Amino acid sequence: STVFRYLNEEYDLTSNPAHQVKQLPEPKALDRFASAEELTSLLKAAEHCGWKQMKLLILMAVSTGARRSELLSLHWGDINFNNQSAYLYHTKNGDRRLLPLTSTLINELMTVRESSDGYLFPHPKKKDEPFYNFDHYWKSTKNNAGIKQLRFHDLRHTTGSWMAAAGVSMKAIQEVLGHRTITTTQRYVHHSIQHKAEALERVFGGLTKHS
């Protein structure tokens, strides 16, 4: 379709045959987030995956809700240990953002802290480049943890879902995830069946007592 649109604009063609092709509906995104048990297993398995930064990357992804590309763009100079934050210069929507860091995450960062201003997650063999293609280690970590069908991006879903289950407002979740609209945030927040069951039990569990 893009090719024919270009031809139409460049050569004044009168039709685009791609318009006659019926568009199939896109499948809905898989609603997936890590449970507490899965996350514990992931962090433990990450310690033996062969890449020493894997555990830190997983912990940082879940604790901040930042995107994969945002985390990989971080330099040590972007981390402020005094006010426990990380400054994102490069984000998906172009807005610079400040990431609050938990005490647990700060302690983990301290154990691997470097004096240079290099990348937080550098390529093992090319220190001046971020490690974009760490997927082999991510897959190995999942396998060792006995987890299937969990994408690295689902850790971002995990952040939003856990915050929502804890009663955090949608506005606060939006700000943490760096979304421009609440609508986008709502697509990321998936409540666990246990959380829903507990809510229904709390409201309707004693219904027959009043009849």
Note the overall shape: globular
* Element-level helix/strand string: HHHHEEEHHHHHH
Total beta strand runs? 3
Report the portion of residues in β strands: under 5%
How confident overall, as mean pLDDT?
85
Number of helices: 10
Main sheet: strand order: 1-2-3
The biggest beta sheet reads: 3 strands, antiparallel
Radius of gyration: 22 Å
Helix content, binned percent = 40-55%
Low-confidence stretches: none
* N-to-C CA distance: 63 Å
Secondary-structure-based class equals: mainly alpha
Walkthrough of the structure:
This protein is mainly alpha-helical. Helix content is 45%, strand content 5%. The chain is built from ten helices and three strands, in the order ααααβββαααααα. A three-stranded antiparallel beta sheet has the order 1-2-3, with no helix packed on it. A hairpin with a 4-residue loop joins strand 1 and strand 2.
